[in-house]
Amino acid sequence: MRDSRRGDVDPFIVMDVMEAARQAEAAGRHIIHMEVGQPGTPAPQGARAAVGAAMQSDPMGYTVALGLPALRERIARLYADWYGVTLDPARVIVTPGSSGAFLLAFTALFDAGDRVAIGAPGYPSYRQILKGLSLEPIDLETRPENRLQPAPGDFADLDIQGLLVASPANPTGTMLDRPAMAALIAAAQAKGAAFISDEIYHGIEYEAKAVTALEITDDCYVINSFSKYFSMTGWRVGWMVVPEGHVRKIERLAQNMFICAPHVAQVAALAAMDCDDELQANLAVYAENRRLMLDGLPKAGFDRIAPPDGAFYVYADVSHITDDSLSFCREILDEAGVAVTPGLDFDPVRGGGTLRFSYARSTADIREGLERLARFMARRGLAAG
Fold this sequence. Notes:
Blueprint: H1 13-26, E1 32-33, H2 45-55, H3 69-83, E2 92-95, H4 97-109, E3 115-120, H5 124-132, E4 136-141, E5 162-166, H6 178-190, E6 194-198, E7 221-225, E8 238-241, H7 247-257, H8 263-272, H9 276-300, E9 313-317, H10 325-336, E10 338-339, E11 341-342, E12 354-358, H11 363-379
Parallel strand pairs: 1-10, 3-4, 3-5, 5-6, 6-7
Antiparallel strand pairs: 2-8, 7-8, 9-12, 11-12
Helix pairs in contact: 1-10, 2-8, 3-8, 4-5, 4-7, 9-11
């Protein structure tokens, strides 16, 4: 059987780490999960209750391709509540997770062979989805002085048709402030490049509110999800905000690619948006976990880190310890029982010397994980002090 070169994408390494951790647990070991960017909490209670009630009276058939009107209206209201932005619900498209939104956005905006700039380190699936659509990802090697976020100078001399940024970012958790976001938007627009803002970690911020690109321009695509702040990873429901003139094109693509996002997930998402107390309690856990990580990782010997503004990750430079982060992660899993993610997932060039630690799980797990990491590094003479 013949196959396509478009299918020759790299593995999502964190999923391989998850599988190795699962196998260790199946063999009877207790593993602390710092590898996957997934809240340890379920969907909010109100969301689960809404699903239970709806299942008794609704057959959960197809919705319209753009999503339940009530959900689109509620998402638009979120932009008023969080950012003071007035948003027409007609511009909101409900998608099968943010992954579905990326497929729709890349297909709507770019032709085969177009070049799309993404920051490195960055979410690995950007690169692989672009490749799978016969597009060319252009890695921008971000710099520590820019807090590992892209800057206009990084692509000033490049021929690109698109720029994708994430704030808060995965794997670093760093954010773009309003002037930095505005500068990137202006630089992209000056090149005639489409601007896409990945905002799936909005709501998980600690010292300042994240800036949405919609505060600056309507001439952009904004992608978000119920996976992170709303604690609904497995429900596979997200959203996208697009310019008014792009709605019908996205609708036609969504009709043919997906028909619609899962109906039951949309019901849950609508209810989740009004579960503020529970969601803020989750955020308080992340904040405590972040405090523990920023204190405990340097003590364990992981002291070259970019302090995260949001999300639930710490990205550590371990190039003074190893140039093979994949093997190093295997050692940590085998010897310490802690699953962490090698930087190769996020930066193909420099990722051999970096690790990502997730602190999305319970505080008890984070405390135990830090103790195990400290013992692991002490055995190698690498712990601080």
